[in-house]
Amino acid sequence: MKKFVELTSRIVPLPIENIDTDQIIPARFLKATTREGFGENLFCDWRYDVNRVERPDFVLNNPLYKGQILVAGKNFGCGSSREHAAWAIQDYGFDVVISSFFADIFKGNALNNGLLPIQVSDGFLERIFEAVAKDPETRVLVDLYAQLVRLEASGDQETFEINPYKKSCLINGYDDIDFILNQRDAIEIYEAKIAG
Amino acid sequence: MGKTLVEKIWDAHVVKSDAGFPDILYIDTHFIHEVTSPQAFDGLRSRGLPVFRPAQTIATADHNVPTVDQHLPIKEELSRYQVDMLTKNCAEFGVELYGLGHPFQGIVHVIGPELGITLPGATIVCGDSHTSTHGAFGCIAFGIGTSQVEQVLATQCLLQQKPKTMKIEVNGTLGKGVTAKDIILYIIAQISAAGGTGYFIEYTGSAIRALSMEARMTICNMSIEMGARGGLIAPDDITFDYVKGREFAPTGEAWDTAFAKWKTLYSDEDAEFDQTLNFRAEDIEPMITYGTNPGMGMGISKHIPATADQAVSEQPSFQKALDYMGIEGDTLLVGKPIDYVFIGSCTNSRMEDLREVAEFVKGRQKAENVTVWIVPGSKQIEQQAIAEGLDQIFEAAGFHLREPGCSACLGMNEDKIPAGKYCVSTSNRNFEGRQGPNSRTFLASPLTAAAAAITGRVTDVRELLEETVYA
Ligand code: SF4
Fold first, then answer.
1. Each residue of A142-155: b (16+ CB within 10 Å) or e?
2. Do B155 and A164 touch (CB under 8 A)?
3. Phi/psi of residue B127, nearest 5 degrees
4. ipTM of this predicted complex?
5. B130 Cβ below 6 A of ligand 1
6. Each residue's pLDDT tens digit, B174-215
7. Which residues form the Aconitase/3-isopropylmalate dehydratase large subunit alpha/beta/alpha domain (chain B) (predicted)?
8. CA dihedral B452, B458, B464, B465 (to 10 degrees)
9. Is residue B283 part of a domain?
10. CATH code of B24's domain
């Protein structure tokens, strides 16, 4: 799994609430049997018209905005369990998603792939959107060790929560399977106990 | 202090619980399907691992399959490839597959209960968010991502944080034309599409207890639409009667042992929930959604909310949803012409749904402007519907009974709602493009969907039910 420790980057703002996984990656693109290549169709129906021409008003098509941090409205990633949503965001080039609220399954999927979901307060999210509206080149610093996210120019910052186990997974680049495979003995003992 | 049902089941499945780490939770049953499993099998291959407990893994093909001419090869190349991949992976790793052509094939959340694989007190996962459906039997059942599918294939366990618990109580008697689907759409509209995030929800109360197993599955199915990890209902005689005698349900001594255990599956009187909500069945009308998430629903007689009445921060998203749907705030939805009716999906494609619709449409004709698809949840349901002559009733009404699959629930197979068209759908999601690019979805119960099919418009089914009575 990809490691994550620290990042300073420009941001891509998407101030829409309840962005569901069908918007992130529509179902018709889930037919691939590998994890790569989903970035091309990230936010497909917002990004392209029916003839696959870029819609100029969508933020990913706006040359003013770029960066490795996606900032979105609350309840990001609701809907289906498709991990393809996390893969698509990562494959496009994002390493961090900031929102004031994440859907559960999305959050878990992101963490399992080294994509860092950061939950900030409604107020701080609002201030990030305001900053980038004023200056599209706004940069944000993310420090996973310190669990800190900061608007570089103003110094406005907030700490965020992350499960300590998940934090160490990200920092070391190991995943749940690596961890759980080491627990085979405990699993077999449990099974024997249940079987009586 | 007593325990909630979720805590009882959870605690019985914890392999290991260390401070600072998520619990290692043992998974009794793992369902897989063609869309979210190929990368997981690849993961096993690259780690050189077998499936740890293949007998506890069951596969079916549902998301990508066509719902006509299933005996022919799948036309769409990528879908065919994905289904073939599943067949190949199951053969290689020794997993039982109920694929196309198999008498047990169907939507993963329909076949588990139907075959008696879904049992009270179990832990059940699947790479699909509507795994919550199985909670109707008093199980901990939830959707997982592909990395977790790989984890369960490799170890039959999952690293999981113990969830918070919520109790939702619905008491009273449902009015005429009001069904389980309306209960759950009502609850979601009350608490929003994010109101259950982080929770496992236990549904209780006299209105829930009175429901059949099929109706309970409809309720639990949509738990995820309020963000909850899962939802469940304590098992009772209705549950046990349903399970008994099914294909893979325990028999003889094994049944007796299981039954004794199942009887202990309830939340203790003094158990504490992190949150409790109460609703009255009498307050619930037939429901319909008007927007682009399942929380944007209302009683069918109501006006669509106005954007100006929303919190300021929510107004842009709200207006965007109305624009997408091509409707205006502060107007009635009843009377709006529609183009398609879809009766199907793991929410409402079971025998009871089909019977209810057949009874309602018997002797009636669909409106000319509407295309109606009825898609059974499984091969067994399709066969049963034919045995009961429901296919004849549907045909006479101008409806089309198709073959089993996820169908128009998600725009992934051949059944798509065309751009700009309106569909009254019994499925569970009304997201933008969910039923096909730029399609527009109104979620409702099978009865409300059937009523729309007859009139060609969004309709309050209660008016047509009156007609039946006085005819
Ligand atoms: S019917 Fe719809 S919600 Fe249910 S499993 Fe299939 S795609 Fe998912």
1. bbbeeeebbbeeee
2. no
3. -75, 60
4. 0.88
5. yes
6. 999 999 999 999 999 999 999 999 999 999 999 999 999 999
7. 7-456
8. 90
9. no
10. 3.30.499.10
